[in-house]
Amino acid sequence: xxxxxxxxxxxxxxxxxxxxxxxxxxxxxxxxxxxxxxxxxxxxxxxxxxxxxxxxxxxxxxxxxxxxxxxxxxxxxxxxxxxxxxxxxx
Amino acid sequence: xxxxxxxxxxxxxxxxxxxxxxxxxxxxxxxxxxxxxxxxxxxxxxxxxxxxxxxxxxxxxxxxxxxxxxxxxxxxxxxxxxxxxxxxxxxxxxxxxxxxxxxxxxxxxxxxxxxxxxxxxxxxxxxxxxxxxxxxxxxxxxxxxxxxxxxxxxxxxxxxxxx
Lengths: 90, 163
Known about the structure:
The structure holds 2 protein chains of 2 kinds.
Chain A: H1 2-12, H2 14-28, H3 31-46, H4 53-67, H5 70-89
Helix pairs in contact in A: 2-5, 3-4
Chain B: H1 8-16, H2 20-52, H3 62-67, E1 89-91, E2 98-100, H4 104-111, H5 118-128, H6 146-162
């Protein structure tokens, strides 16, 4: 089931569109600036030389997920739901 | 994750059998995936910036920020200095007189004998310079030929109208 959905998302290009939409929304609402400031704190704490991508991902992901505004999340989910519903109807 | 490519029809039948609960959880999954993708992108961006040393470029040190803080006081400019009234004076390179800056350009035009009708006046002045003490007309330098000029024009006009 999941693979089928994934395939559809990729084939239609919808996944790329969704990602782009989310990125734009997060820049618009200031999420990105907030996260960047947070990243800076982490980098300062760890030292510029010792930062790895894995560190950043581990530190940022929970906070990043939590900080996404509800409105943005709702918009995304609505769009995904519509897409899935469309796919089932065809 | 390795995906086994499904035929379109197969995928459709699979999706057809979806219940609303499943739809909800699937949507959540897709959202999670997309959000993680975006966060990962941000991580790459920041990591790259760190390694290139451009992450902290827009920050300045505290001391310099204190030093160049904008001053907001009455009677001072943004640098904290008291505005001083400067006496703008220039020295004419031609005749070495002190002049107010606002009168420098008209003076120079006449003094050096350039401009519309000044060459004539300048040459006249050079011719007269032996007789007239030049320091006297220092004070009303801007006007020293104005009346002359007017009379001249008036004379010309009246002579034209007479004819």
